[in-house]
Specification:
Helix content: 25-40%
Largest sheet: 7 strands, mixed
CATH superfamily of the largest domain: Vaccinia Virus protein VP39
Number of domains: 2
CATH topology of the largest domain: Rossmann fold
CATH class of the largest domain: Alpha Beta
Shape: globular
Amino acid sequence: MKCRGCNNICEDNFLDLGNSPPSNAFLKNRHKKEKIYPLKVFFCNKCFLVQTEDFASRKELFNRDYVYFSGYSKTWKNHLKKFVIDLEKKSIINQKQNSFIVEIASNDGTLQEILLKKRYDSIGIEPTASTAEAAKKKGLKVIKKFFGKKLAIDLKKKISPDLIVANNVMAHVPDINDFVAGLKILLKKTGVITVEFQHLLNIIKKKQFDTIYHEHYSYLSLISAQQIFLKHNLEIYDASQIPTHGGSLRIFIKHKNDLSKKKTNSFKKILIKEKKYGLNKKKTYKSFQVKVESIKKIFLKFLNKEINKNKKFAAYGAAAKGNTFINFLKINSSQIQYIVDKNPFKRGKYLPGSKIKVQSENFLKKNKPDYILILPWNLKKEIMEQLSYVKKWKANFITAIPRIKIFK
């Protein structure tokens, strides 16, 4: 296969997670036949972009039944509030200057709502009908399309954004160069693009293999991102490490010929950190499979040992990362009986692959499991606070990545 970043021939294996359905393809009927695809990831030994081998189209993955709504996470809402404050502190947006903002992959409009309360004008671009319609019902401006070069040319005739926000979307783009070309076209001469993505350094270092699924086409580092943006005469000038999704990067991008913005020390330090860890060396990527297989072996041994003691397991958080974890380990409903989630669009449905049913919290209270496996481990603090009442029947919370950890 050709590298989607630099077009180099890409044959080096990073991780093979076997075959599974797309992680957000929840089932209304557990007997429905599912489409199964290989979940295989490669790395480019030229630009070091980590990427999936493509089987499912983006229209199939991001469809009318898409079930991820960002507004259900209190942690994410708080993150976005801090994000807006940070943008104001850096003078990237300003109320007095009527800064205009475009958010790509605006989902259910959670960020747009925060901007509106601060009296900023914004437009969201969101291709999934379920989330775009939820945002429109809030009175927000949304364009229901995939973003790329073609849409950017059309929009440029009407708008000129001071800021383009692309949080957690670059990983979801099959044609990453078309996406970045669109950013270049749409951005005003002195404007800023801000992008957030899960940091590849943390995926490898903390063994976060469950963040790999079909909806994520690319896994980025500062090293690989820098090369993609420079290819389109865009330049990363600032970067910071943020805690979301188990450790992400927030990068700030400008037109290369915009000399009003200088590269920061923070950007330089992160680049040095990546190189020191070996993200520009082949051997760093080659050893990941062995580490992941070890997590699988250890967790299954623990799970089956406790089940043999008649302990009951439930899971919390029907997130895409949880489905990757469950399907790679081949866990079924005889081992983890059900999964709890507060998103009403998921409840009553079945997880793709494992066919474990998604239930409400009331079901958890009646069933009283001994262990609650927190699948979205990045939200464990929020979830443990929300479910603090399970201590009444002495239930234990558990996370499995990067190693088994029990919270009594």
